[in-house]
Amino acid sequence: MSRIALVTGGSRGIGAAISVALKGAGYKVAANYAGNDEKAQAFTAETGIPTYKWDVSDYAACAAGIAKVEADLGPIEILVNNAGITRDAMFHKMTPENWKDVIDTNLSGLFNMTHPVWTGMRDRNFGRVINISSINGQKGQMGQANYSAAKAGDLGFTKALAQEGAAKGITVNAICPGYIGTEMVRAIPEKVLAERIIPQIPVGRLGEPEEIARIAVFLASDDAGFITGSTISANGGQFFV
Ligand code: CAA
Known about the structure:
CATH superfamily: NAD(P)-binding Rossmann-like Domain
Radius of gyration: 17 Å
CATH architecture: 3-Layer(aba) Sandwich
Strand content: 5-15%
Order of helices and strands: EHEHEHEHHEHHEHHHE
Bound molecules: acetoacetyl-coenzyme A
CATH topology: Rossmann fold
Oligomer: single chain
Number of strands: 7
């Protein structure tokens, strides 16, 4: 019987690559998305992976969405908390909405998604929670006080929950991607990307979403049962912890 995986923000960018890689590794995969119906439908048509729409910043919507996925596919054994947004601005220009939107999605989204699946994972004595944090949660990034705070929070969440899950066969790990060639990174002003960011990456290029997806597939596997509370960085040498 193949295990069931749910990937948030799973129809675009890094999340889409993770959904596809997990399916390729034999998992039954569901992809959550929040906004772009057209992209989600195209993703399902192309990959055969079903998509489910809800907003991870809304606890009740997460509980209802998870119940629907579980009714369709079965109990969620692997949860990939990938959904994330940016609202970049220098701090003196950052609005309270910029702050709240990013914290609600990128940090509280992890609580909202993990809490409804946690009891089931405990009861079944198996679970994999994989949180997509960021290099910018590790090192901080100008223009991202909100995003860096949320992504650093994701690492604390990972380490605390790993301790709670360990005796119940649940591993909780984080991946910290560096700058990956997705729409989110390509939205950075061209001049900033070319002159300020790429020169800071020793391998001299952006990462590929599939380079992150392969880490997620490994963390989801039975082979990774002794790895919990860890942070795996994949950033082309841009930052060492
Ligand atoms: N690294 C180094 N310098 C940076 C920088 C960066 N990432 N971002 C901005 N700067 C510099 C600019 O080059 C500029 O310097 P000069 O005045 O010497 O030219 C200065 O900071 C001010 O920047 P702007 O003129 O662009 O100021 P702005 O107010 O118009 O815009 C900003 C500010 C919205 C933060 C914009 O610069 C920006 O989007 N920067 C990119 C921030 C960033 O790295 N975001 C990561 C997004 S990808 C992601 O989040 C995924 C992930 O997990 C890695």
